[in-house]
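hey
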């Protein structure tokens, strides 16, 4: 699966639960919130004042290191 800024939080977590730790380290502690599941990575980053490109790179680095 290719993760992009348009990938929803639910899709990412269903693909690999390890992504949750990256999101939480970035300041997104609402990973388990039902409202966040339908948000795209870009939308979630915007709500939390994070740079979606930086968070996406961290997720991609994590996935590539597996």
């Amino acid at each position: 699966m290719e993760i992009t800024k348009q990938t929803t939080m639910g899709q990412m977590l269903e693909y690999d639960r390890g992504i949750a730790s990256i999101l939480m380290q970035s300041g997104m502690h609402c990973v388990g919130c039902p409202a966040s599941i339908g948000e795209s990575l870009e939308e979630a980053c915007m709500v939390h004042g994070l740079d979606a490109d930086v968070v996406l790179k961290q997720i991609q680095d994590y996935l590539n290191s597996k």
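Residues 52-64 form the longest helix (13 residues). The radius of gyration is 10 Å.
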